[in-house]
Amino acid sequence: MSEHWRCFVALDLPADCHAQLLAIQTELRHLQLPIRWSKPENLHLTLQFLGNVPVDQLPNLQKSLRVALTTQTAPILSCNMWGYFPAASQPRVVWAGFEQWPAQLLQLQQAIVACSSQIGIVAEDRPWHPHITLGYVNDRLTKQQLEAIASQLQASQWPARSAAYSTCQLIRSVPQPQGSRYQAIETWSIDHA
Questions:
Q1: Peptide bond before residue 14 is cis, with ω within 30 degrees of 0
Q2: Which domain holds residue 123?
Q3: What is d(CA 91, CA 136) in angstroms, rounded to the nearest whole number?
Q4: How many domains does one find in the chain?
Q5: 70 falls in which pLDDT band (50, 70, 90)?
Q6: Is the pLDDT reported for residue 11 higher than 70?
Q7: If 138 and its partner were Cys, which of 14, 34, 45, 59 is the partner (CB 3.0–4.6 Å)?
Q8: Looking at 1-5, 96-100, 104-108, 145-149, which range is the least confident one?
Q9: Burial, 185: exposed, middle or buried (Cβ in 10 Å; 0-12, 13-18, 19+)?
Q10: Confidence label for 193 from pLDDT (cuts 50, 70 and 90)
């Protein structure tokens, strides 16, 4: 039986955006809410969650991604909003995101899905919603806690400049008791206009 690795494909955050989101996380930590905040090294924009991939299929996937990414343009994004999954009334995830999704981002995501389908990975049924996970809610939040987090997020200084998201990675997620550790399998640079 073949070994499987839990994997996903993601864009790294530009340095300014990464630093600003870490500052926002620091502000939110002061609220002392039952939220497990994403580790600084784990902040990313997922293009596709692949699930458990047979290790012997990874070289084929890497080759396909390598070729596909040469035809893509790095998306220019402005991280300027936040939200909750699945709903604000009972959040399980706190996220940062983008008011506008340029065509380059959607084309890039579709190219990743096409590559993964070549090795038999089926894309999720639910619509893709580009976001950066800031934290995972461990327990139900009270109305006061929800108001406190919303107030803090509204008052936060969001990254002001648009930036090119020009580094793409195939990442292995290694489960650990204190949260998953992410290990880059391969990294690619995407040209930007």
A1: no
A2: 4-189
A3: 9
A4: 1
A5: very high
A6: yes
A7: 34
A8: 1-5
A9: middle
A10: low
The predicted-structure confidence for 26-62, as pLDDT tens digits, reads as follows 999 999 999 999 999 999 999 999 999 999 999 999 9
Give the integer Cα–Cα distance in Å for 190 and 107: 13
Beta bridge partners of 49: 8
Residue 72, domain CATH: 3.90.1140.10
Spatial neighbors of 157 by CB under 8 A, at least 6 apart, are 20, 23, 24
Residue 81 sits at the vertex; the CA angle it makes with 6 and 141, to the nearest 5 degrees, is 70
Stretch (H or E) spanning 19 = helix 15-29
**CA Rg, the chain, in Å?**
17
Quote the pTM value: 0.92
Six-digit token string for 146: 């929800």
Q: Name the region of 51 (left: φ>0; alpha: ψ -120 to 50; beta: rest).
A: left
Counted residue by residue, the chain has a size of 193
pLDDT at position 1 over 80: no
Distance, in Å, from the CA atom of 181 to the CA atom of 179, rounded to the nearest integer, reads 7
For 128-174, the DSSP string reads P--EEEEEEE-SPPPHHHHHHHHHHHHHS----S-EE--EEEEEEEE
Q: Which two tokens stand for residue 151?
A: 């107030």
